[in-house]
Amino acid sequence: MSFFGELQRRNVVRVGLAYIVSCWLLAQIAEFAFENFGAPDWVLKTFIVVLLLGLPIALLFAWAFELTPEGIKLEKDVDRSQSITSRTGRRLDYLILAGVALVVVVFVADYLLTSDDGVARTEAGEAAVPVTTTSAPEKSIAVLPFVAMSASSDDEFFADGLSEELLNVLTKINELKVVGRTSSFYYKGRNEDLRTIGEALGVAHILEGSVRRAGNQLRVTAQLIKADDGFHLWSETYERSDGNTFAIQDEISSNVASALQAQILGKTMQPPEFMGESSVEAQNIYLIAQAAMAQRTLGDIRRARDLYAQASVLDPDNPAYFAGYAYALAIQYWNYRDIPADEAIKEAGTAIETALGLREPDADVLAIAGLVEELRALSLDEAAAKARALDNYRRAIDKDADNILARQWLASIYLDLNEPQRARDNFEKVVELDPLNTLALTGLANSLFALGLHDQARQHLFKIQSLFPESSMAHRYLGTIEYEVGRVDKSSYWRDIAAELTPSPQEIMLSMFNYVAFGWADEALEVAEKYRQSSDGIDVSRLVQARLDMDLGMLSEEAQSVFEQTGDADFAALSAWADAIAGRCGDAVTTLERQYPSLKGEVIEYLDGADLINAMLLAHCYAKEGGDKESDRLLTALMDSDLLSDSAIEANPPRRLIRVAAHAVAGDVSSALTALESIDIDNSMIIISQIRLPVDQLPVFEALRDEHAFQQYASRERYRIAAQARMLASGETREEIKAEVEAAGFVLGR
Predict the structure, then answer these.
(1) How many CA atoms lie within 13 A of 99 on its CB side?
(2) Looking at the predicted structure, is the pLDDT value of residue 114 above 80?
(3) Of 274, 302, 335, which residue constitutes the final position of a domain?
(4) How does pLDDT run across 323-362, given as a tens digit for each residue?
(5) What are 661-672's pLDDT values in tens digits?
(6) CA angle, corner 345, sides to 344 and 350, nearest 5?
(7) Same domain flag for 146 and 88
(8) How many folded domains does the chain comprise?
(9) Domain range holding 101?
(10) Which end of the chain has the lower number of beta carbons within 10 A, N or C?
(11) 527: left (phi over 0), alpha (psi -120 to 50) or beta
(12) Are residues 152 and 245 located together in one domain of the fold?
């Protein structure tokens, strides 16, 4: 008999196959067990080596021995006529088939648990992340949050800090596209298929890892994976003794970045020099602050502001830390009106000037300098500050065309300047760089709305609130869009959720004034109490009661008082409306000129679209005070501006009513009525001023009050307000919204 035939007769081949299948299954079990018990890597490696060493031993044993009814004997001592090797071979065949079947089951289960035909798996009630179909650039990567394998908050803190530091290091590699932090951290705590994540984020590679602690040993595992097929390109484990956590993060992130650059770009990178313990600690505090800023909640922004301040104390020569402090202050005021405007401007201005003076500013510092200038423009109505902001954003993009901060804020300023297509182009660029950036996604929706693509904007926001049900941004903008198309009930629904998610004075104020518009005193006063709690004791209940009672003197006085405490321009405008309706136009002029100094020129250099109606009130009050020349000048400047151009009105139907007001203030009743006829009364904006009164009670329409067409319009507006109040109270509004969201293919997040 040939040697191969003898191997078959003695079942050596079968024993070898059975041993290999059994070892593979044992290795899978061992990997799972050792990982969950926190065993060091060498334990699993040693176990596998022992299994491999056992293979030749098993083969030699199968060759030399034979299983008989009397037990195991040397093969040479067995009478071949009495041999049962054929029966033993069949049993081994069954064992091999069972083992192979089990291997197949493991593979199939793993596939089903990590994918679902390319659609992201989510928890019940969550929306799947949209998947892109374009091919990802080969030199691209997403850094997923490293997983802390223990329940210790210290380990999670370390894992998040390491992920932040890796992002920070990798973004400095010019040839590598690194997905932004917001998008990468969206997947924290989510068990989703890596192929789907790669498609959603538009990257070819994914870096993931874990942090595990065993006694005083810290073990970090990092692995680079091809997103399209899940193939592991590289992996490494770093074991360190407990010590300076920040220094360990810095060392490991540098080593990983060097290895990834070699794998993806085929280049080696010299690891950066160790910065010294205080600088490393400052850098990691800064990265944690950046992570908090990305959450965009008021609490996170306050925390980030304090962390930036700590970092600047530890390392006062780094401009990024001072710029970060200015950034947090600007957003704290801009989004939440949580601090007085003059305080935000002063502190942010000082911090950014320090940052600019330390060294040649990088793109991030320039972008934040632009934001601080925009804060000045917003609070002080400075056209020159708006121009400086625009210049800073453009300089930042010249330094780094992919700078996310500069791109998204440049896009926002284009919206203010009535250039929605430029805004859309820049927001789309940010979304390309950071696909799940909520600020860019909501900004893109705003630019779509400004382009007249209202349904597209609304559906875009439906998607965002479905993806990010705990973020107030999409809810806030949905509230704004519905308000501008005349659905105050839908606006109230979305704004109530925004105020619940982010109980800041700004969100709560918007919710409160919707109830004022409906005349719901109990609800408005209840929300006024929430405003007091969120604003460190600023009481607006008397203001709300004065508006409900139409006590105009008290309303003006209270609005001025709240404005002086908060710097919020809406309260100054409310005071001016109360004065004008009460016949005190001189006081209204004083307030409005102080608030909008740019309206004094022959050309309107800058004015937010939401303030157009206040500009009309100023023109009206000029005329009432005998300043016909000033009134005509202002009206001409407004009508000649891009804000009331035909294209702007086509894209922003609410401005049709502003144009009616302009003609009415000018005394051109015929033109005002012609403009009124062009408005779809059932789909137009209602409650267009801060005082939340119907149009026939607003002084800017005084010249039209006796006109039948205007009376019909006002009557229809009152009917719509009453009908919407009933729908909101009955729950009909929510059901309508739910049906719209589901018809668009999404779920109602709250």
Answers:
(1) 20
(2) no
(3) 274
(4) 999 999 999 988 887 788 889 999 999 999 999 999 999 9
(5) 999 999 999 999
(6) 105
(7) no
(8) 4
(9) 3-114
(10) N
(11) alpha
(12) yes
